[in-house]
Design goal:
The protein has two helices and six strands. It has 133 residues and is of the alpha+beta class. The chain has a single domain, classed as Trna Endonuclease, Chain: A, domain 1 (3-Layer(aba) Sandwich), CATH 3.40.1350.10. Strand 4, helix 2 and strand 5 form a beta-alpha-beta unit. The protein starts with a strand and ends with a strand. About 5% of the residues have low confidence. GO terms for molecular function: endonuclease activity; nucleic acid binding.
Length: 133
Amino acid sequence: MTGTIERVAPAPGSGRPAHLELGRRGEELAAEYLRDLGLVVLDRNWRCRDGELDLITTDGTIVVVCEVKTRSGTGYGAPEEAVTPVKAARVRRLAYRWLRENRIGWCTVRCDVVSVLLRPHHTAEIRHLPGVF
């Protein structure tokens, strides 16, 4: 699935390094996009000592864990190309840990990637890749 959402510039003077602000903005747009698809955001930026999950959502039937990758250009490839097999395995492990810590019994879990391209002076490009790992 692909979609576009009008790009809104980051707040000036946020005090964050540019790459962190870019990532935060990408996650905001991804969460908005997923909500527009009817998913409910259960958790954001969940952290434990082994890593972080960007977005945990549900459609009421399954839990959807989304890895969000944001880039300002494609000089190093498309954003989703940054999700390596090692990263995918870590996200899967963390997803099951999140389920245990939140006392959620057996359920179907799907792992998605949401790719956000925020090129200067362009509309944001969002690609949703459901169930890619």
